[in-house]
Amino acid sequence: MSFHSKFTLLASVAAAALSLGALALGGAAFAQNAAPQATAADADAAVEIIVTGRAGTGKRTKAETSYSVTNINEEALRLQAPTSVTEALKSVPGFWVEASGGEASGNVRARGVPVDGYGSITLLEDGIAVAHDPALGYLNVDQVFRVDETIDRIEVVRGGPSAVFYSNAPAGAVNFIPRKVGEVASGLVKATVGQDGLFRTDFWYGAPIGDWKASIGGFYRNETGVRDPGFTGNKGGQLRATLSRDFDRGNISFDVKRLDDTVVFYTGIPMRTYETGDIKAVPGFDGNYGTLTGPETSMADMKMGDGSIYHYDNTLGTQVKRTQLTAHFDFEVADGWKLKSTMRYNDTATQRNGMYPNTLLSAASFLDQNKALIATAPGATALQLRYNSTPTQTYDTRTQNGNGLVTVAGLRGITMPVKEFMSDNQISHRFDLGSQTHDVTFGAYFAHIDESFSRYSSSYITDVQDNARLLNLVAVDASGNLVKALTENGVWRYGYEWENASGEQTTYAAYLADEWQITPDLRIDGGVRWETMTARGRVEQKKTVNLGTLNTSQILMGNGTFATYDQTFEHTTWTLGANYQFDKRSGLFARYTSAARMPSLGNYITNATAKPTIQTMDLGEAGYKFRSNAFDLYATLFWTQYHNVAFSNYKFDVITGVSTSEAAFADTETLGLELEATWRPLTWFDMTATATIEDPQYKGLTYTDSANHLQDYDGNQLIRVPKTSLRVVPGFNLLDDHLRLQAAVEYEGERFVDTANSVKLPDYTAINLSARYYVTDDLSLYAYIDNATNSLGLTEGNPRAGELASADAGANTFIARPLLGRNYRLALMYKF
Length: 832
Known about the structure:
7% of the residues lie in helices and 56% in strands. With 832 residues, the protein is mainly β. Strand 26 (555-583) and strand 27 form a beta hairpin. It is a multi-pass membrane protein.
């Protein structure tokens, strides 16, 4: 289908949606005539003030913006009760989110920008980045940020001007806006318990103190985890304190936040395609609640090439200790002149440990592939696998655990201390030119990052069951007697990964934006950003040492020499949009943005000779917006073209224990439609819906693989991104509005694991239920059922099998990561 045909098709769908919206609006108007229901909440919603993705001296409502915005208010957040930052973004059209890995390390793909983690969007807190680079090489921004009751609401800009106002935000910006202190003292306390051993307490209290306002809040929680690892997976919390003061024509605030938290990271589990076509966990493994991680793989003393020991502790999971200091100054220096300055300093220490199932295969195959090792044990006639904790227990290659499978899994430890300073400064002026006005903003941004990075990994042999156990490879004689132990403590190979690097990055940016009100109905918005980045650092070079045994024969370690890098990049991004208002409630907008993502320290942490390029992309959007007390509709057509995306295709070799990579480059193109609607036909019923219909394709993805074969994947669907995503949330307000019941029905179309589109992730539907009951005006009870139908929807395959052409192609047994199983939670909140 040609680009013109696709655009025409999507335009037709948009027109149909608008027609349905008009019909629904008419029905809503009829219902209103029968039972008027405009509420104060509706009136407030109609004039939501947008602070993200723009500057200037004036205020702008959602219905008046020239780009796509999604608002999530505090009560919507409470009813959704997201278990992670990534989960909080489920209701945003145009975003595909994947949070099956737990509370951190999620993935967001926005509008067809083909990068994982948070590489396509940035996270803001009160208008400034949580981290300058939200995807800083093994350090996703959601690892260092938690959602709690100190957050008042979320604003999400999709595409639009985010690339001009923020660094590393080519496809959007998510702004978590903290709660503000009012004119009188107030607060809340919330306690949450869950089926998975969860106990959590959130609190916030704020009060005026003379001319100042102060608040304190945070959370603490203790939780085993939905997939029980055999130890406490999530433990810790955060505390924040804010001091602010309003004065004539301005305000100033200071905020300090301390995060000390540990979260478990869930990797893929063994799945199988059965004769019925159903995909479920392999026999002997619980697909809803099981994880390979367990007590036997939670602690390990790994030998290093210099004879020292690396102490691996997976009970830490992703452990983050972070201190964040923020200062904000806002002042109207004269009529029509506004000065704004925000500074943030972060000191973050991250330890990221995890168990990664690199390869899944039958035990019989594993033994057959390694039969040459029999010759290293004179008198031996065969190989066996025996349990490390019970050395006399032999692994039955046919029936053990009901599956006869084993994994070669990597236990990986990564240490990343990062210190970061950011400063964003703006001066805005609104002036008149005849009947027209200009609201002009000039901004200057600075960021400096110091990072160290170290990694050590060893591979282990495990069986396949919930909380997998370690296995050793042994050689036996004809009677089955032990001749020689070929491995020890379950280790297949020590030190198959090793890194030691450090560096610093400095970024300067200047931007200019103008909101040009041509007529009362027509406005042109434009902006340009120039940015330069310099990265300097060093990476220790590696050597391989042989300590004399099978699992110590190829240990990687440092050789004492360092390769250095010192590179500078600069680029200019720009955006131009137009907005036409029919009235305060409705309008049309269109926008074109030339966006980019700069390289960062993350490109060099394992390779000082890397030659990263500036990732450039073109984004177009055109939308219609309508808002009333009874019906809201936001429909946006978007187009994204991504230039020269790089792929590193990692594949793990079970025999050598080595990961090798292939590189490829391509463009991508995505044409799509986003729909966001709310319908309130009755006082006791409402429904919200979001939908994304898109056609994400690779363009020009051809390359010659390591076997010298030409591979042509031009026109294939982008990995992990579905063509159709739908989320519908019907809600019921009962018992004189004391009881609220709602269900979130989520559908994701089929996706693919690799660019070859050889391994399919089937479509799935998941349902989340929630309820709120007002016991009194101050006391509320919340109840949640996550994944009520226990859907085993697959969110990703095994990236370690290769993402260009997966080694899992054609296999009926493979590694994949499904949704977390059904889980129940209860929360009690008291406001005062």
